[in-house]
Amino acid sequence: MNEPISSRDPRPPDEAGRVALLHALQLLDTPPEPVFDRVTRLASQLLGVPVTLFSLVDAERQWFKSRVGTPLTETPRNISFCTHAIAQDAPLVVPDTLEDPRFAANPLVLGLPGLRFYAGVPVRTAAGHAIGTLCAMDTRPRALAAAELAALEDLAAIVADEVQRREQMSAARDHLHTADVAMRATQERLRSIFELASFGIALIDMQGRWMTVNAAACAILGYSEQEFRQLTFWQITHPDDRAVDKAAVQEMLAGRIGQYERQKRYLRHDGGAVWVHTTISLKRDDAGQPAYFIVAVIDIQARKEAEQQLAALHADLEDRVRARTRELQGANERLTAAIASQRHAEQALRTREAQLTSVLEYANDAYIGIDDTGRVIAWNRQAERTFQWTADEAQGRRLEDLIIPQEMHAQHERGIARFRATGEAVVLGKRLELPAHRKDGSALTVEVRIHATRIDDRVTFSAFLHDITERKRAEAQREHDIRHDPLTGLLNRRALAELLPQAQARSRRHGIGFAVLFIDLDGFKAVNDRLGHEAGDELLREVARRLRAAVRANDSVVRLAGDEFVVVLEGQPYTLAEARTVAEKLIAALVQPVAAGAGEAAIGASIGIALHALEGELDAAELLREADRQMYLAKQAGRGWIRPLP
Which residue numbers delimit the PAS domain (predicted)? Predict the structure, then answer.
């Protein structure tokens, strides 16, 4: 690992000047700083990789100013990936290190930690020197999407801006450091919430003008953020809904209510109306005076994908970075103004934190914060409504004591322990459907998205949960209706097409055959003609009940169509004699008179039998056709016959 640097270790043209500038910046061998740690954590979350670094490339080593997912603080330069990244203008992306001749024999690839993926963006000073990289690494090969690479470049630009500001503001660094770290923390937290939000969020001033609008709101209503700023809340509210909204706003201004929610219509950019579920809350300042409204909007006609939210939030983050850069450049010209700027930043921080708290508190998804021991540290109002526990009741309790079913406790505890030991978790960053239960013990199904954040070697989890119980119930009912006859409740032809191949597979697995009985009712048409269709339907339901009662629980009864039924006999090695015995039992059950409509009906049945043998077997369609053919022969012989004969 300490052999001389080979010709495969590229050096920038002005290596001596680059290294001298790196040492002059006084970044090497300094303690971790939140301003960089937030960027590496955000890069890890956005790209879904276990390791992210802000690496500084010294003369003969690379040292990690900020790191996520590795205990190492430095490595020799002659085995580093980053020394290749700083030698080129474009980002360096290695989808699979074993496929790249520059890195296939690298000890960091062949040994621990077994790197298989690398993406690094050079971090440059104002003079253009690449002093290091912002890089992301994984132990699995992977492809990097264009949006992910753009996000990594944007985050590297933030790091570069901070480095360049340190070149320009060494005199003001101590005075502005606290305010700068706090502001960046607020920006990153606010951006994370916006990225996770699947609903529209907006702030409206007291004149009804749109102050801030996220991408979801833009997607729902079709306006750009600039177009929103040229409109008022009332201009895009449907005329029929304005009176109710105005009355509710007056109630909030009078202090009688703090928020209201309802279903209403907005006017889209294209002129059409869209139904939304909206929650509007009034935010007051420290003096208790109305300051602005917070509006949350869910599109109940069509939902948009999260990429639109990310694009708007990305643009918003760039605006904030540019604004912050202008503030710091102004502070460099007038050091005495730094204290006033710091006070202003602290006030902005309190405002942003209040906005963040309001967004979380009034989100339409249940939001739960969990520490690395599995105990609740945050529980919003929607979580109270969804799971019936108040925030005070939930605070400090383990999640499995609140919403996780008993049978999943062990799995949850193993997942927490595995993450604490290895930093790996299969549920992070995915959209999952999981069972849960409420305080009263009732069950529900939730859609869950979980993200992990590591701060000072401590991990917290942010979970957004949405109740999808009704949706899953509707899906299950649709699946049942597809495979069952609506009149009799028996399995239908589609279910039979799935059942027969499954029965054949079970037959081969257990080494026993089974029998298929094709049943056609005798005299049903006469009953239908004499007593009417309603009586005929009543008769068919009674036939279904008798067939089901006459066979065993593991046998299947199917209504094909009209007065044709199929019974599949399984669970024992059926012979023709045994199958005929069941068929005779079915005929005996069906010939008993049935009360139908205003009269009484007597019917019979003709039955054809097909046996599934283990050798020379028919396929499912041929087996059914053989049973149908035998039934036809029985029908020709007269009422109540069974074919084939013994």
Answer: 186-256, 352-407
